[in-house]
Design goal:
7-stranded mixed sheet, globular, 45% helix, single chain, disordered N terminus, alpha+beta
C-alpha cells in the first residue's frame, strides 16, 4: 500500500455552486469523525474525505477523492485509487468545510464510520486522546476549549507529562498571565531543566508587566538550561517589551547584547520596530 502523509493548509477558494447541497460553515477543528468537503478549486473540483484525530499528528484529513457538480446538481465522483492512502495533517487555516449529510452517503458509497478508524480508536487511551485534543485546540487558537480538555486530563492523571505547561499555554493564549505564572512555577519545580516551560514563563512575565522578572528568567535560562532552542524567541519577547515602552535606549542595549536581529525569523520585525522608535524619539531625551 502506498501511503503519503502531507502537511498542508488546504483549499482556500470559496464555493458557490454547491450551496444548495453543501453548507460550508464549519472549521475543520469542529468536524472530528465526520465526512467533509473542502471548497472547490478553480476548476470547480471539490475534495472530500474523513476528519479524525491521530494521536501522533493531531487533526488529520483522510482524502477519499474528488467530485464536481453538473448542471443538474448531480455529484460526478472520482474516488482515489484503492491501494493509495493520502492523509493530510490539518494546520490552522481560514477555510470552512461542509459536512456530507448522511442522505448523500449512498451516492458517495461511504459509511458513517470507516472500517480503518477502529484501529486508531482502539490504540488510544483517554488521557492521550484528551491531551491531543487540547493541544490541537490550542494550536487552532481555541484555547478556552483546549483548557477544558486539559482539565479533564488533570482529573485522570494530574502528573501527565507536559500537562502543566500546556495548561499555562492555554492561560497565556487567553491573557490570563497570573494563572500561567502560577502553573509554570509548579511545572518548573517538577522539571527544572524544561526549556519550553521557562519560555512560557518568560512570555507570561513580559505580558504581565513583570519585565524585570522576565529578564531574570532570561539570564536564568542562559546560565542553567542546556537547551537553547528558544533563546532568540526569549530575547525577542523582551525586546518587544522595550518597544512597547517606547524605550529606544534599552531597546538598542538589549539588541546589542543578544544580537537577536541575526535570527532571520525576527529580523524584519526588529528593523520595523527600530525605525518606529527612532521616529518617535527624534529630539526626545532618552529614557534611562
Amino acid at each position: 500500500m502506498k501511503i503519503f502523509i502531507l502537511i498542508i493548509s488546504l483549499f482556500t477558494s470559496i464555493c458557490c455552486t454547491a450551496q444548495d447541497k453543501l453548507d460550508f460553515n464549519l472549521k475543520p477543528i469542529d468536524c472530528e469523525d465526520k465526512w467533509v468537503v473542502f471548497p472547490s478549486d478553480l476548476s470547480g473540483s471539490y475534495s472530500y474525505g474523513f476528519v479524525y484525530m491521530d494521536n501522533q499528528t493531531g487533526l488529520t484529513f483522510d482524502f477519499a477523492g474528488t467530485f464536481k457538480i453538473n448542471s443538474s446538481g448531480k455529484f460526478l465522483i472520482s474516488k482515489k485509487e484503492a491501494d493509495r492512502t493520502m492523509k493530510f495533517r490539518l494546520q490552522p487555516n481560514k477555510s470552512l468545510v461542509a459536512i456530507i449529510p448522511e442522505s448523500y452517503f449512498a451516492e458517495f458509497d461511504i459509511s458513517k464510520t470507516p472500517d480503518w478508524l477502529k484501529a486508531y480508536q482502539e490504540s488510544e487511551n483517554a488521557a492521550d486522546k484528551l491531551f491531543r485534543w487540547a493541544i490541537t485546540y490550542n494550536i487552532w487558537n481555541e484555547c478556552a476549549k483546549g483548557l477544558t480538555y486539559l482539565e479533564k486530563v488533570k482529573t485522570i492523571d494530574p502528573n501527565y507529562k507536559g500537562l502543566k505547561t500546556e495548561i499555562a499555554f492555554s492561560y497565556n493564549c487567553q491573557k490570563q498571565y497570573e494563572n500561567a505564572i502560577t502553573v509554570l512555577k509548579e511545572a518548573i519545580k517538577q522539571t527544572p531543566d524544561d526549556a519550553y516551560a521557562y519560555k512560557q514563563l518568560l512570555y507570561s512575565q513580559v505580558y504581565n508587566n513583570q519585565l524585570p522578572d522576565a529578564i531574570k528568567t532570561y539570564y536564568k535560562i542562559e546560565k542553567d538550561i542546556t537547551d537553547k532552542t528558544y533563546k532568540s524567541e526569549n530575547a525577542f519577547n523582551i525586546l518587544c517589551a522595550f518597544y512597547s515602552q517606547n524605550n529606544l535606549k534599552k531597546f538598542n542595549e538589549w539588541l546589542n547584547l543578544t544580537q537577536v536581529d541575526k535570527d532571520e525569523r525576527f529580523k524584519p520585525y526588529i528593523e520595523k520596530f527600530k525605525q518606529d522608535l527612532e521616529k518617535m524619539n527624534q529630539g526626545t531625551p532618552q529614557k534611562p
